[in-house]
């Protein structure tokens, strides 16, 4: 049984006030994660460099170390 199922089982024993408190906690945690994720995306967007090389991520070894290019699917 996974954590979601375990939590769902335990929810049956909580009062409405406890459920509301739990909801607020979960909501605040998920919002914090979402905000961190958004901040990271914004930072990466601001820091990206336009190289004009369309296959840089797939062929980084070639551009960094001079290895042969890999076949890309």
Please provide a written account of the structure:
The chain is mainly alpha-helical and 73 residues long. The protein is 64% helix and 0% strand. It is built from 3 helices and no strands. It has helices at residues 3-11, 16-47, 60-65. The mean pLDDT is 87.
Helix content: 55-70%
Number of strands: 0
H and E string: HHH
Shape: elongated
The value of Rg in angstroms is 23 Å
Could you describe the largest sheet, including whether it forms a barrel? none
Share in β-strands? under 5%
Structural class: mainly alpha
Regions with pLDDT < 50 over 5+ consecutive residues?
A: none
Separation of the first and last Cα atoms: 38 Å
Taking all residues together, what is the mean pLDDT?
87
Total number of helical segments? 3
Highlighted features:
single chain; 73 residues; 3 helices; elongated
How is the topology of this model organized?
Layout: H1 3-11, H2 16-47, H3 60-65
Summarize the structure.
With 73 residues, the chain is an all-alpha fold. It is 64% helix and 0% strand.
